From TrEMBL:
Record keyword Cell cycle present: no
Domain of life: Bacteria
Signal peptide positions on this chain: 1-29
Lineage, opening ranks: Bacteria, Bacillati, Actinomycetota, Actinomycetes, Kitasatosporales
PANTHER family documented for this protein: ACID PHOSPHATASE-LIKE PROTEIN
Name under which the protein is recorded: Hydrolase
Length: 212
């Protein structure tokens, strides 16, 4: 997707910052677990709202498994293969429940893996349940934090009435239809990872739905 002019970004940020601030509040929605390729994190903080240090440690545990896989998979790319990684945004690439400001800080363990991938020619795509009204400030936030955004998928009006998991799966299908091989899908909720269309999934902690 193309990036709009700087002035258009600033205008969109001004009208959408309240929405982003609301999204930065602690989430209350619950999701069910998923049998992902990678075990997410320890259950040490599942009984109460997780603290930041525990969350970062648990995210790092998952990314310590993701990085060796990605290094090997990137090195084994077939000639002409267009590799891609799909990321969720809230509490995956950005510190949504911990970053009470705009731009929200990057989730550093994930950013480090993303930077390795993008530095080695892998395209980064972001599939989020965020509404389209905050597309531009979300794109700016990601790029500000150091992510190279090859594509950002947000929910349009009619998408808001669809099952989130089905919506996210459809976006991965669209990425594949543009000729990309999705070598990894990284998110913190079941809806981010179910539905296939990725060679490997990595689940970050959501502590039984305590994080959005």
């Amino acid at each position: 997707m193309t990036t709009g002019p700087w002035a258009r970004r600033i205008s969109a940020t001004a009208v959408s910052v309240a929405a982003l601030a609301a999204m930065a509040a602690p989430a209350q929605a619950a999701t069910t677990g998923i049998a992902a390729d990678t075990s997410a994190a320890t259950a040490s903080a599942s009984a109460a709202k997780v603290d930041y240090a525990t969350w970062q440690k648990d995210c790092q545990t998952v990314m310590d498994q993701a990085l060796p896989y990605l290094k090997a998979r990137i090195a084994a790319a077939e000639p002409g293969e267009k590799q891609a990684i799909v990321f969720d945004i809230d509490n995956t690439t950005l510190e949504t429940d911990f970053g009470f400001s705009y731009p929200q800080p990057a989730n550093k363990p994930v950013l480090n893996v993303a930077k390795y991938a993008q530095d080695h020619g892998v395209r980064l795509f972001f599939v989020t349940a965020r509404p389209g009204i905050i597309y531009l400030p979300t794109e700016y936030n990601l790029e500000h934090d150091g992510y190279n955004v090859s594509g950002l998928y947000v929910r349009g009006l009619f998408d808001l009435f669809k099952d989130v998991a089905a919506y996210k799966t459809a976006q991965r299908v669209d990425i594949e239809n543009h000729g990309y091989k999705i070598i990894a899908n990284i998110g913190n909720n079941a809806t981010d990872l179910s539905g296939g269309h990725a060679e490997k999934t990595f689940k970050l902690p959501d502590y039984n739905g305590q994080l959005s």
